Amino acid sequence: MKYGQWQEDDMCRALAAVRKGDMGVIEAARTYSVPRVTLQRHLVGKNYFAVKHKKIIDSIADLRAEVEYELVGHVL
């Protein structure tokens, strides 16, 4: 599976299936076409940048927008 190719709805269904005990992590990952490691990370709550089931592909900005604009202005 290529990076970021899973769907948010599939992740929700996989999470629900594992939490209800209907299937294990490996089976849910295969059934719903989501990465097993990502599913496990969501289950244990270690997906720091994701909000619930949402995926984030781009990088997270360390600076607030106004600070970034001020810095750009200063550099230019």
Describe this protein's structure:
The protein is mostly helical. 54% of the residues lie in helices and 0% in strands. It has helices at residues 8-20, 25-32, 36-44, 65-75. Helix 1 (8-20) runs antiparallel to helix 2. InterPro entries: Homeodomain-like_sf, HTH_Psq. It comes from Periplaneta americana (American cockroach). Residues 8-46 form the HTH psq-type domain.
SSE order and pairing:
Elements: H1 8-20, H2 25-32, H3 36-44, H4 65-75
Brief summary:
By secondary structure, the chain is mainly α. It has 4 helices and no strands.
Q: Separation of termini?
A: 42 Å
State the helix count.
4
Tell the overall outline.
elongated
User: Got a strand count?
Assistant: 0
Radius of gyration: 17 Å
Instruction: Look at the structure and give the mean pLDDT.
Output: 81
Based on secondary structure, the structural category is mainly alpha
Unreliable runs: none
Attribute tags:
76 residues; mainly alpha; 4 helices
